[in-house]
Every structure is written in C-alpha cells, then in structure tokens.
Amino acid sequence: MSTELSTAPASGNQQLSVEEANILAAELRSQLRQGLVPASDSPAIERMVAGLGDTRGLMRLTFAESLGAVGSAAVPTLCRALRSHDNVTVRRAAAKTLTLIADPSALPVLLETLLSDSDPVVQGSAVGAMAAVGDQALEPLLTVLVHPEASAMQQGLASWGIAFIGARAPEALRQAASSPDARVRAAAIAALGEQIQALGDDQARQLLLTALDDLDSEVRAEAATLMGKLQEPEWACPRLLPLLTDQEEQVRKNAALSLMKLGAKDALPALKASVEQEEQPGVRLVLELAISQLSK
Fold first, then answer.
1. pLDDT tens-place string over residues 222-234
2. What distances in angstroms separate CA 88 from CA 106, 122, 124, 197, one per listed residue?
3. Residue 37's beta-bridge partner residues?
4. Which of 79, 88, 103, 148 is close enough to 109 for a disulfide, judged by CB 3.0 to 4.6 Å?
5. Is residue 216 within 8 Å of 186, Cβ to Cβ?
6. Low-confidence winner among 7-11, 43-47, 172-176 (lowest mean pLDDT)
7. Packing angle between helix 120-133 and helix 107-116, nearest 10 degrees?
8. How far apart are the first and last CA of the chain?
9. How many angstroms separate the CA atoms of 255 and 43, rounded?
10. Which element (helix H / strand E) includes 102?
C-alpha cells in the first residue's frame, strides 16, 4: 500500500531547502511508522533522492530508509545520482541506499562507480552495495582485479567484496581459485574460509592445499593466512611448516602468524630454527613473536 506525497517534477541535481526537507521527512517518517510504502512515482523518488544531500545525517537516513522501502522502483534514479550527481554526499548516500535495496540491475553502474568515481568513500560504498546483491556480483568484482587501470585500493575493495560474498557463490569461487590470473586466484582463496567451514566443501579444501604450492607468492601468502583462520591445527600445521622457508618473506610471515594463531606448540622447534637462519628483520620480528606467544 502506498500514500501519495505532493511533489513537483524534478530533474538533475535537484536540491531541497531546509524547510522542504523537514516537511518531506516528517511525511515519510509518518508513513514508515504506519507501515506504508512511500509514493514510487518519478517526482516523489526524485525528491527523496534530493534529500540525500541534506547535511544532517538523521535526515539523510530518513530519505534512505524511505527509498529502501520503495525498493526497485527507486533504483534507476539512484543510479543516475550515483553516476553523475555533483554533490559527493548524494553519491555516497545513493550507494548506501542501493545497499538496502540490493537490486542486481544496479550492478553495472556500481561497477562503473567503483572504477571511475573520484571519492574513495563512494567507491567503498559501491562495493558494499555490490556485495549486498550476493553471488551475481562476484563476476563483476573479479573483473576489477584484472582491470588494467584499477588502482590498488580499488582492487583491495573488490577483494573485500569477494570475501564478503563468500559461500553464497561456491561454484564461482572454486572456478576463480583456479583462474590463470594470480590476482583472481589470491582473492578467491582468501574468500574460501566460510565455504570450507560452513559448507564442508572438500573441493575448496583441496584448492586451498594446492594454493600453498602456487607459483605466485601472493596466492601462497593468502593460503597461509587462511590456514590459520580455519582452527584445524592438526591438519594445518604440517602444511604450514614448509612455508617457514619459502623464498618470499610475506609467505614466511603469514605462515608464522598462522602457526601462532593455531597455538601450534609443536612448531616451536621449526620456528626457532627458522629465526636463526632468517635474514630479513621484519620476518625475524614475526618469528620471534610467534615463538614468544607459543612458549607461554
């Protein structure tokens, strides 16, 4: 059920005065309290989107919740605002509102926003909205990892989104873990934890073991970290010990940290032998920390 708001045609970067925003927000709050869905005609949606530029956080929240209640009908207007509004506050709020709606039709614009918007908060909020969609967002996020112009931050945000989706896309993650691109493999391996623990996915477990011997050090490093998160010391420790002598220092660090997290006291002799041979000060510090913690 919906109730109409008095609205005038709106377009582009419409702005509401303080008085207009107050009146509109009061009407919307009243409707939401009554369990009513706000009007979903184009002018009404435009006015609510304009309200996302209000300087008051609680006021923006009212407009976002109202647009969330409207649902998919608000997505095209929110996407236009996200893509081209000159007020960064509106773009940020539009992305966060799309998170509430979680409509797959927004994915192309959200991906475009991640790759092109100049504001890092907007980029992060776009990834959050993509992750809220679930498994359909996995492939677009994976493309960011291999995009030639994607920054390290954008790739990091995409990796976070992939990890958030996790076990909701088990087959796609397994395929990504075998990708020819090392960045994709690394991100997929980092996201396999829930799949292994919650779903008991033996294929994912085997992919993790394979990743420990990957030719790419970033993949091995991610695999070493995940081994420490699974809380299966008897299974993980024998497979982590060889990584203490890996040629890449980040892999050695991650292996030592995982052994420490697992409480692997049996690994103390190997850790002590490694610290005596270690030439990198940063790795030595990690090894010494692991030895100290496990010796208590």
1. 999 999 999 899 9
2. 19, 8, 13, 40
3. 2
4. 79
5. yes
6. 7-11
7. 150
8. 63
9. 57
10. none
pLDDT of the residue at 7: 33
Contact 97, 91 (CB under 8 A): no
CA distance 156 to 41: 38
Task: Report, in angstroms and rounded to the nearest whole number, the Rg of the chain calculated over CA atoms.
Answer: 24
Q: Virtual CA dihedral for 243, 248, 250, 255, nearest 10 degrees? A: 0
Can you list the positions of beta strands (E) in the chain?
A: 2-3, 37-38
Give the residue extent of every domain in the chain: 1-84
DSSP secondary structure letters along 138-181: HHHHHHHHT-TT--HHHHHHHHHHHHHHGGGSHHHHHHHHT-SS
Amino acid, single-letter form, for residue 180: P
Residue type, 26: A
**For residue 109, what pLDDT is reported?**
97
Per-residue pLDDT reduced to its tens digit, 155-207? 999 999 998 888 788 888 899 999 999 999 999 999 898 889 878 889 999 99
Average pLDDT (272-279) is: 95
- Cβ pair 162, 141 in contact under 8 A: yes
Bridge partners (DSSP) of residue 3 are 38
What is the spatial distance between Cα 223 and Cα 168, in angstroms, rounded to a whole number?
Answer: 20
